[in-house]
Amino acid sequence: MQLFNSKLCAVCKGRKLLCGRPTCPILERFRVVRGVEKRINKREIFGSSPPAIFVGEFGYPKVRIGPLVPPIEGNTSYLDSPLKWENASIRDVLRYRSLLVMGETKANVDVKRSGRILSEIQELAMSIRPVDSEILLKRKPILKVLPSEFAPPIGPKAELLDFELTENPRIPRKTDYVVSDELKAEQAIMKLYNSGFDEYYIIRLLSAGLLGIQKKLVPTRWSITAVQDIIGKRLRREVLRYELINEFELYFYEFLGNRYVVLLMPESYAFELLEVWLKGSLFGGEEPQVIHDFEDWRGIKGYANQTAGAYYAARLSILEHLRKRRRQAKILVFREVTPKYYAPVGVWQIRLGTKKAMNNIIGKFQTLQEALNEVGKLLEHPLEYYLKRSEILKVRAKQRTLDDFLRL
């Protein structure tokens, strides 16, 4: 049975859940739209931006950029604070994103050519508190419900005619210093991170073209990966100086339909993410395949082509854990995506899911075999398929057969 096609959906109509998912992703989007459409059905939107901005990547170096403003006043920070969504459901996230109206305009990534509107957007990006803002749109914003379970949650948008901050943004002195100083982007990111600034605040500054010597707008998706990669590389250098952990440590957490199993090994640093989209999940086929990316102490070669942004998000969470403990380990992460993850919400849930996993230890073991036996109990996909793909375990597999690892 195909998991998603027009004939199946026509028969099901969202009532019978023939695709095997716990809820219909198409109907869920319609429910979200119905809940917010009356509040955004106007050309002038006044409210408190969380603050939030968006920079697209299509057409680079001429990109879409715009402020995100909800028709709500007051403390709206929860609408764009991914690392604080630990108790949010997928439906909550869809609703948050649907309330943020984007007034989009075209801009060259070279911010030296910026005008008044871009300057206002940059001021908004620097604020650490919601800012009362007003956008004037060419037409009423449209929130489309795409007939695809693969489409990420997209908020309502329309062409921007004007944007104005109606109150002064609250900008930290540290931000003023970092933005105005002649610092490379990596230096600026680490200064802010080590000063305790929220990771997504730093991402917003980078997207708005406020960091680096040659300041340029950076598409939001690229900014997320860039910031997580830069911080991760710095933390790896620190972790490499620390002593090894003493035992095999196993961690587990399930978050928004994503199952995370993290195995720390008492050996010199390496990191690997093994990922499977189970049958019935968004990208799961009849025969789920294990994908993976790997690095040793020298770092990954190029970009994580198979697991993409998930790689950098998961790596950062675990490196933060090791840095806090001042310990070093070899890291093996198993990610299983279940049918409960019925709508893609972004790599923030991987960042948060692995972070929560590191606060939930399952046990400590003296041997790898004992640890892997326990790993197999936590996963739905057969462990042997993971082991066959694992770069970290290839050397060990040459010394022992897979049957040795799986023997109970």
From TrEMBL:
Keyword entries, A-Z: DNA damage, DNA repair
GO annotation (BP), single: DNA repair
Segments forming domain Archaeal Nre N-terminal: 18-283
Superkingdom to which the source organism belongs: Archaea
Domain (Archaeal Nre C-terminal): residue spans on this chain: 296-405
Function field: Involved in DNA damage repair.
Family the UniProt entry places it in: Belongs to the Nre family.
Protein name: DNA repair protein
Originating species: Palaeococcus pacificus DY20341
UniProt lineage: Archaea, Methanobacteriati, Methanobacteriota, Thermococci, Thermococcales
